[in-house]
Amino acid sequence: VGGEPLFRFRELDVLLPQLSRMGINVQLVTSAVRALPASWSAIPGLTLVVSIDGLQPEHDRRRAPATYERILKNIHGHRLNVHCTVTRQMILKEGSLPEFLRFWSERPEVGRIWFSLFTPQIGETPPELLRPEERRRVLAELARLRGRFPKLFIPDSVIRGYLKPPPSPTDCV
Prior knowledge:
- By secondary structure, the protein is α/β, with parallel strands linked by helices.
- It is about 35% helix and about 15% strand.
- The protein contains seven helices and four strands; from the N terminus they run H-E-E-H-H-E-H-H-E-H-H.
- Strands 1-2-3-4 form a four-stranded parallel sheet.
- The chain starts with 8 loop residues before the first helix and ends in a 10-residue tail after the last helix.
């Protein structure tokens, strides 16, 4: 996680099969700016995750050249999860969460859809930050949407954790 791992795909072509043979599960998070190597779809224990920043117009603006069009082309033939971090800008557009879920749920490549909530560093108040009442509303909406979108994966334990996060990183483990 961090940076774009597909820029180092030659190294990953060597490392990922070795890690798999060692019985180590790997989750590789990418923007899918490059095509995912076809051979990776057969690596046991490899979970591919594509990070997407909301609906197409916002995502394409923020993530170009990793646009929706490019992602759809580059994930073809793979099975992967989609991850989206919910920001304040995303929820200001009514219906954005169900629209996002509908679009990505229809893709045969997508196995699960995960959401996280934007969380800044301590003391920062960027425009992406959800207000406490917005966090509660988003979590209630995601809990309701699980019934309509089976690919949405957000267990009750995750919702409870977002509603009442641990007071410090030490309390997370």
